[in-house]
Amino acid sequence: MNRNKTMELLLGDDVRVLYEQMDNGESKYKMIADDGSYYCRTVASREGAWQNSHLHLHVTEHYLVQTGWIAYASYEGQSILHLRIVTEGQHIVVQPGVHHNLYMSAGSVIHTIKYGINTASDWTASPELDRLTQSLSEYEILQKGS
After folding, report:
1. What is the residue-level pLDDT of the chain in tens, covering all 146 positions?
2. Which of 13, 46, 68, 115 holds its CA 20 to 30 A away from the CA of 103?
């Protein structure tokens, strides 16, 4: 995702707080430590939207849904798409090496914790999964994810 608004605040020597307004309308409130560990509260826009598909080689991501619902998409070789709906109070853990993407329903709120060796270079785009997810409508997501 391209970022169109960013604000940053340093808290001490090893933690910074970052606000990002994403092109898809999401607002992200992040707290990032120098060791790369990361907490983020993400608030979806008024319309549901996909994020960008990606994978991490060394980072584990833990997503918790506070409000609304998300669709979690993952990809295995041979273009096999796995889609799961995650609702309020549920969570999902994404292990390193898994191609994944999230669809956030309108107004949903999630919390993300990232840990492991988290560097700027540990985010790799997954165009294969984007091809399978970006064109899915919310209706199709709900049909395939149940």
Report:
1. 444 677 777 777 788 898 999 888 999 999 988 888 889 999 999 999 999 999 999 999 999 999 999 999 998 777 789 999 999 999 999 999 999 999 999 999 999 999 988 776 789 999 999 999 999 999 999 999 87
2. 115
Q: What is the pTM of this model?
A: 0.88
Tokens 């990606």 sit at which residue? 54
Ordered structural domains, the chain, with CATH: 3-145 (2.60.120.10)
Q: What is the β-pairing status of strands 91-94 and 99-104? A: unpaired
The answer to whether 128 touches 99, Cβ cutoff 8 Å, is yes
5 Cβ partners below 8 Å, 6+ apart?
A: 19, 20, 21
- Residue 96, both tokens: 């390193």
Q: Do 117 and 36 touch, CB atoms closer than 8 A?
A: yes
Helix/strand/coil (H/E/C) assignment for every residue in 44-64 = CCCCCEECCCEECCCEEEEEE
Exposure of 51 by Cβ count < 10 A (0-12 exposed, 13-18 middle, 19+ buried)?
buried
